[in-house]
C-alpha cells in the first residue's frame, strides 16, 4: 500500500548575514529562534556569490560525468571520504538511496581520495577553495549559536579548526539520477531516504528547478527513526543556503537546538514533480576527533568528537539491522511470490 505523504506549507526562516559584525546580536537571536524550533533555516547575504556556487556545481558535474571505472578508484572509505553509488542504505527506508556522492575533507583522510590532476585538472584546488568559503560562513553561524548557548564566541570555531589534521568536516557532492516520467517507478525507489545529519550543522546548496528536498520539522529526540509525519517542500532559490542542525549540536545543546528529518523525495507525479537530474552539495561541519563534546547543562555524558560520530554510525547500523529483521518477519508471515533465496 502506498503511504500518502502529508504536507504543510510552513515557511522556513530566511536569515540575512548582511553587516555581520555590527548586526551579530540580532542575527544570533534569529538563528537561535530557528534552531530551537524547526532546526532549519535559509541563509542569504552570506558572501558566497551565485557565480562561485555555480562554478563548484560545474566541478561536481565534471566529477560525476567521469566513467564509474574512474570514480571507483577513489571509493568511499571508513574515513568518510570518497565516492559511492547507490550504496547508502537509510534505516528509514531499508533501501539504498538512488544517487551517487563524493565526499572531500581538508586533511590526511584525503590522501588516496583525490583523483589526479591528469584526470580532473583544477578540481582539487577549486573544491578546497570553495570549502574554505563555506567554512567562513559556517564559522559566523557557529559564533552566533555558541553565544546563544552561553559558550565563548569561538567555542565551536575552535572545535572545527580546518588546520587540525583530525577535523572531520566534509563537503559532499551529490548527484541524483534522472527518471523517466512515463515509466513506473517502484515504491522502493528513494532519492535520499529520510534521515537526520550526524554533525554540528549542515549547509546545503541547491540549484533552482532541481527540487525534491523535503523537511520534517518538529521532532523531539534524535534516537527515533519514525516516519509518517508532515513534510514541507523546500524549493531551491538561487544563492540561498539551506542550513540544518545536526545530531551533534542537538546533543551539545542539551536538546535545545533540534536536529530534524529531511529527505529528497522520488518524483511521482509528472504534473508537479521534477524528474530531471538533481545536483546538490552539503557541507557537514563535524568536529576535530579529540574535541570533547558536552552541553552547558551536562545532560549527556562527555564524549569526544570521534566517539560521537562513531556512536551515530553504530546507532544507524543497529536501526538498519532491526529494520531488516522486521522486514524479514513480515515477508515470512505474508504468503507472497516465491523469490530466489539469497546466500
Ligand atoms: O541532496 C540533498 O538535498 C540532501 C542531501 C542530504 O540530506 C545528505 O546528504 O545528508
Ligand atoms: Fe542530510
Automatic annotation (TrEMBL):
<dbReference type="GO" id="GO:0046872">
    <property type="term" value="F:metal ion binding"/>
</dbReference>
<dbReference type="InterPro" id="IPR026992">
    <property type="entry name" value="DIOX_N"/>
</dbReference>
<protein>
    <recommendedName>
        <fullName>Fe2OG dioxygenase domain-containing protein</fullName>
    </recommendedName>
</protein>
<comment type="similarity">
    <text>Belongs to the iron/ascorbate-dependent oxidoreductase family.</text>
</comment>
<feature type="domain" description="Fe2OG dioxygenase">
    <location>
        <begin position="166"/>
        <end position="287"/>
    </location>
</feature>
<dbReference type="Pfam" id="PF14226">
    <property type="entry name" value="DIOX_N"/>
</dbReference>
<dbReference type="InterPro" id="IPR027443">
    <property type="entry name" value="IPNS-like_sf"/>
</dbReference>
<dbReference type="InterPro" id="IPR044861">
    <property type="entry name" value="IPNS-like_FE2OG_OXY"/>
</dbReference>
<feature type="region of interest" description="Disordered">
    <location>
        <begin position="323"/>
        <end position="343"/>
    </location>
</feature>
<dbReference type="Pfam" id="PF03171">
    <property type="entry name" value="2OG-FeII_Oxy"/>
</dbReference>
<keyword id="KW-0408">Iron</keyword>
<dbReference type="GO" id="GO:0016491">
    <property type="term" value="F:oxidoreductase activity"/>
</dbReference>
<keyword id="KW-0479">Metal-binding</keyword>
<dbReference type="InterPro" id="IPR005123">
    <property type="entry name" value="Oxoglu/Fe-dep_dioxygenase_dom"/>
</dbReference>
<dbReference type="GO" id="GO:0044283">
    <property type="term" value="P:small molecule biosynthetic process"/>
</dbReference>
<feature type="compositionally biased region" description="Basic and acidic residues">
    <location>
        <begin position="323"/>
        <end position="332"/>
    </location>
</feature>
<keyword id="KW-0560">Oxidoreductase</keyword>
Amino acid at each position: 500500500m502506498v503511504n500518502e505523504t502529508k504536507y504543510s506549507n510552513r515557511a522556513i526562516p530566511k536569515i540575512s548575514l548582511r553587516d555581520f559584525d555590527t548586526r551579530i546580536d540580532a542575527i544570533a537571536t534569529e538563528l537561535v529562534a530557528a534552531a530551537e524550533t524547526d532546526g532549519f533555516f535559509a541563509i542569504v547575504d552570506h558572501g558566497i556569490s551565485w557565480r562561485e556556487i555555480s562554478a563548484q556545481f560545474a566541478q561536481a558535474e565534471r566529477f560525476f560525468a567521469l566513467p564509474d571505472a574512474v570514480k571507483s578508484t577513489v571509493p568511499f572509505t571508513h574515513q568518510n571520504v570518497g565516492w559511492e553509488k547507490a550504496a547508502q542504505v537509510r534505516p528509514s527506508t531499508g533501501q539504498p538511496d538512488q544517487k551517487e556522492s563524493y565526499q572531500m575533507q581538508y586533511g590526511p583522510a584525503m590522501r588516496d581520495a583525490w583523483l589526479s590532476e591528469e584526470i580532473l585538472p583544477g578540481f582539487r584546488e577549486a573544491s578546497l577553495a570553495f570549502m574554505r568559503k563555506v567554512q567562513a560562513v559556517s564559522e559566523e553561524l557557529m559564533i552566533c549559536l555558541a553565544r546563544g548557548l552561553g559558550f565563548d564566541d569561538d567555542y565551536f570555531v575552535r572545535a572545527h579548526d580546518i588546520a587540525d589534521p583530525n577535523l572531520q568536516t566534509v563537503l559532499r557532492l551529490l548527484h541524483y539520477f534522472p527518471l523517466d516520467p512515463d515509466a513506473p517507478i517502484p515504491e522502493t525507489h528513494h532519492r535520499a531516504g529520510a534521515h537526520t545529519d550526524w554533525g554540528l550543522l549542515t549547509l546545503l546548496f541547491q540549484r533552482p528547478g532541481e527540487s525534491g528536498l523535503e523537511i520534517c520539522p518538529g521532532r523531539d529526540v534524535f534516537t527515533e527513526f519514525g516516519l509518517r509525519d508532515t513534510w514541507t517542500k523546500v524549493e531551491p532559490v538561487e544563492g540561498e543556503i539551506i542550513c540544518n542542525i545536526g545530531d551533534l549540536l542537538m546533543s551539545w545543546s542539551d536538546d535545545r537546538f533540534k536536529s530534524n528529518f529531511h529527505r529528497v523525495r522520488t518524483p511521482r507525479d509528472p504534473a508537479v514533480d521534477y524528474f530531471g537530474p538533481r545536483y546538490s552539495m552539503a557541507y557537514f561541519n563535524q568536529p576535530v576527533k579529540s574535541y570533547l563534546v558536552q552541553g552547558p547543562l551536562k545532560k549527556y555524558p562527555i564524549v569526544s568528537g570521534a566517539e560521537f560520530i562513531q556512536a551515530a554510525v553504530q546507532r544507524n547500523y543497529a536501526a538498519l539491522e532491526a529494520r531488516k529483521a522486521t522486514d524479514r518477519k513480515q515477508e515470512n508471515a505474508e504468503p507472497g511470490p516465491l523469490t530466489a533465496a539469497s546466500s
